[in-house]
Amino acid sequence: MNNMLMSEKKLETTQTKISAKDVNVYYGDTHAIKDVNVEIPEKTVTAFIGPSGCGKSTFLRCINRMNDTIDVCRVTGDILLDAEDIYDKRVDPVQLRAKVGMVFQKPNPFPKSIYDNVAYGPRIHGLAKTKAEIDEIVEKSLRRGAIWDEVKDRLHAPGTGLSGGQQQRLCIARAVATEPEVLLMDEPCSALDPIATAQVEELIDDLRSRYSVVIVTHSMQQAARVSQKTAFFHLGNLVEFGDTSDIFTNPSDSRTESYITGRIG
Amino acid sequence: MSDATPQAPRKSSSLLSVDTQTQKRNSAENRFKNYGLIAVMAGLLALVILLTSILNNGLSSFQQSFVTIEVELPEAKLDKSGTRDLTVMSKVTTFGYAPLLTAAMQAVIEENGVEIEGLTKKEIGGFVSKDSAAQLRDFVLANPEVVGTTQSFTFLANGRIDGYYKGRVTAASAELDKNVSPAQLQLADALLDAGVLTNGFNTGFFTKGDASGQRPEAAGLGVAILGSLYMMIVVLCLALPIGVAASIYLEEFAAKNRFTDLIEVNIANLAAVPSIVFGILGLAIFINFAGLPQSAPIVGGLVLTLMTLPTIIIATRASLKSVPPSIRQAALGIGASKMQSVFHHVLPLAAPGILTGTIIGLAQALGETAPLLLIGMVAFVKEFPGAPPEGFFDPASALPVQVFNWTQRSDPAFVERASGAIIVLLVFLILMNAIAVLLRRRFERRW
Amino acid sequence: MPVIWILLIVLALAAVGYVLGRRRAYASAEGEIRKLHSLPAYYGYNAAMLTAVPAFFVIAIWLIAQPILIDARIGALIPDSAISESSTRGLVMSDVRRVAEGLDKLVAAGSLTDEETHNLHIETTDIRELLGSVGTALGSDVAPEVLSAAQDYRVLSGAASLGMTILAFVAAIGGLYYSLKQTNKDFRARNTVESMVLSLLVVASTIAILTTAGIVLSMLFETRNFFSQYNWADFYFGTTWSPSFSGRGGSSQLGLLPLLWGTLYISVIALLVAVPIGLYAAIYLSEYAGPKMRSAAKPLIEILAGIPTIVYGLFALITVGPMLRDYFAQPLGLGESASSVMTAGIVMGVMLIPFVSSLSDDIINAVPQSLRDGSLGLGATKSETIRQVVVPAALPGIVGAVLLAASRAIGETMIVVMGAGAAARLDLNPFEAMTTVTVKIVSQLTGDTDFSSPETLVAFALGLTLFVITLGLNIVALAIVRKYREQYE
Known about the structure:
The complex is a heterotrimer. Chain A has helices spanning 4-10, 56-63, 93-99, 114-125, 131-144, 148-151, 164-176, 194-207, 220-226, 244-249, 254-260, and strands at residues 16-27, 30-41, 45-49, 73-81, 84-85, 100-103, 182-186, 212-216, 229-234, 237-243. Chain A is α/β, with parallel strands linked by helices. Chain A has a domain at 4-109 and 182-260: P-loop containing nucleotide triphosphate hydrolases (Rossmann fold). Chain A has a six-stranded mixed beta sheet, sandwiched between helices. A four-stranded antiparallel beta sheet of chain A has the order 2-1-4-5. Residues 1-12 of chain A have low confidence and may be disordered. By secondary structure, chain B is mainly alpha-helical. Chain B has helices spanning 20-58, 75-78, 86-89, 94-111, 121-125, 132-142, 159-164, 171-176, 182-194, 204-207, 222-253, 258-270, 275-289, 297-321, 325-333, 338-367, 370-374, 399-407, 413-443, and strands at residues 63-72, 150-156, 197-201. Chain B has a three-stranded antiparallel beta sheet with strand order 2-1-3. The longest helix of chain B has 39 residues, at 20-58. The radius of gyration of chain B is 32 Å and the shape is extended. Mean pLDDT of chain B is 87; it is low at 1-12. Chain C is mainly α. Chain C starts with a helix and ends with a helix. The model of chain C has no long low-confidence stretch (mean pLDDT 85). The chains are: A alpha/beta, B mainly alpha, C mainly alpha.
């Protein structure tokens, strides 16, 4: 199934940031992702939805090669970032991940201070030379993470002492501190309460102006609220990809319709 | 490709080229990885050096030089009364037998036409082990009818002669050694050619008791192996039931209160108490207070039991814990009592794990030395302990203590013996661990 | 009657009890098993346990109490005049026991009748020679008081053994009778048996406490004796260790500090070897190595942990010591001794490698994967992740592991006995032979020990010091590790 034609039609105005061609992923003998083709546009929020185990998180982790850390995982096909194949032998995943940041399902602040959490990325990538520069990056990132006002007085308190929602925003701030071009979010709100979820969703909307955001979510409402583009995965296949409004109001595939109306999932 | 400015290292650069910063980081990564590899290799190398050193030094102890000679047993010397009365015959000490050996050696030298300059009579007599006279005497006393005949015997060669064939003694070192002369070494070569002296497998190493510092060639591990076996029997009979009972109580029945907390903390700490402290306990309680005999396997077994208990309890509790609660609930659900559910269902399912833990605990106990030194196991024991149960109270040695004992002697031949004993000990340990691994493989269950 | 026979007879009675209990239960239910409260076997178990357990209990108590009571009785009989200047009551008592034991042997060998032993007199018989003939060697001639005390001792222990035998059988038969009387179809046999089993389980689990109590009490008691003969301050702050060999010369200097210094010096070297290698090996094997390498290298390194310490001791003695002396100490002019702090430290370090690595491995694996993902997702390399995220997160656990390793090193005996030497000195040169607390415990307590001289008793003070140090380290380390585990659970 190739939904490229449809998506290309509606994306004439924006540039493609990430493009996947015939991507297959295997975990040992399990075929987890089957022939996925997708073009993710720049400066948009793209949501991956689908029932659990459909491969949406797996595909997300392919985009910054986090799957490399799993021994049995094998990826075929091409994923292009700005027209460069990220699975090319010459690509260093370390450099790639600086460009393609990631936020995880469970907030995972390091057992360090808030300041050090955010400064970690810039330090390892050598983005700043002086203490002042780092201070500046930390403040900027925490502001972008919409958490500056809450933590500015206790930057040296441990990051693990924050509430769940704060921790997740701290993790987002930590991810944007390395100046990525793409932000991958793997169910970033699944461990949060509704109020914290609303705050994070608002933040995601803000981030769209600077980054291409790809978000995996199990909540269709969340996808509808935050994304402009939606991809529906089912059993390792990309069933349908298009504007969020289209997918939710006028799905072209019967499986998408079944999922959206709650008959499968 | 490399026109990226340091201020904006990646923004303008392509993913396909690795920037200098990343190169630096990658080489740091490789360095770090190599440190790890070096550490692993260092560990493995230490293992290899340790094992080669022991094997190098010890393998030769399984081989031994023997001399086969015809010995005349004249009645005039051995039984003056002629009545074959043992009480009379036993009055002849080993000093009475030694000249017979010397004569027999001289005879065999002449017979084979060996002529060596400067070979004295004393050196000829000293060619066979000092233990030979005792061996001869024991044989004659056991078989009085042989007196007056000529019998063929296989004796151990002197330890230095044995060492000559193992590369420990050379003509040069013999020059400086008052226990062996170069002439004796020449004699050895001549007798080897004549087939009188043979190098063969050293069965006595496994069957004989310890021997004094003057006769390393006669020292064997028999008493030590038996002593270790007795101690392991004691440990098994005490530690297994007590350990399992304690674990069942703590894991299945105990309420969470101060008393059980105290027991738990106690067990965790006992597992880490230095082994020598258990030796002090054994000396003070079992020997001084309870009046049990020194050097006895029963005391060693008791001390090792207390040492092994924490290991067995920890292993047993882990395997009880790994039996899922659903099994217990199933048993309780059809009306079994708690005790029945534990003894009929949980315990059998945990048995392989308990057994594995017990074997590992036993292996630990088998190799333990320090506490045994304090309870007198280090004493010189030549006689075998009796049959159980009385034998548990007879003096005995133990494998690791025998090793220590031999390392304290001055003759370098004992270093070879000690290394050989270590090989025997390690073989036992490997066997026990192999059984434990097999058990685990065979019965391991994943719930 | 020998204890073993009593035990066997009691067991046989218990077996009889099992059969009778079962049969009686059946009979009371008129052969119909449904009428019984419990399964018939439980009635059997009930009878068997009531027969055996009290009897065994009696025997155990008796065996513990008998020597104490008899010693007290006989000890009181020995007049003060019989205790010479250089001796103590304890020493005389051990002579008494020896003589009594020898008399037992004589009776067993048939060379004396029981009657004759009572009529032995120091004037008429050479007791020493007589006892020597059955292998009981005595250090000196037997004093008349000792002989008569030994005779009393035999009479008393004979009576006591008889008492124990009778009491044990009374207990066994009484238990059997009581249990059979109890048995009828309504008797709750299962509940009774289960509560008895439960109390046995409780008793088994208190053995751990009894062991600790035994350790502490035995050492405290003898340490108190030691400090009554030797000034505690001289022991803890003395810088010279030179026990006199003459026995009670009073000229011994028993200062702990040189021993403690040797112990700590060797332990530090051991940790300097073991911690970096063990930690890096654990990191490599858990974070970098492929499954094949891991499954091969991990068990191989763990073999090092299964090797008895005597093997390491021999390794130090015949390989490492001479090598260090020939290639380092002698060329550098640092010493001539094969046994040295360096030898013992390095070999002990090798021994501790698997200990550190497997503990660190557990601890590193307990760091949640999400932290690694978070760091890798930011573009950190693996080594950056390990050094800046994983190790700091695991640090408390690693500290705990190092403390446990230190406690091992301090308490290790065989390696230092064979590799470190016996000379107590306060020195910085690592190629010099030094000695440790454990070495001195072994040397003071092996061979002929005289429990009244400070030279022997000092070993208990050393043991207590060692126990307190290692216990302290263990408690702190276990607390740290436990707290660390809880953090990530």
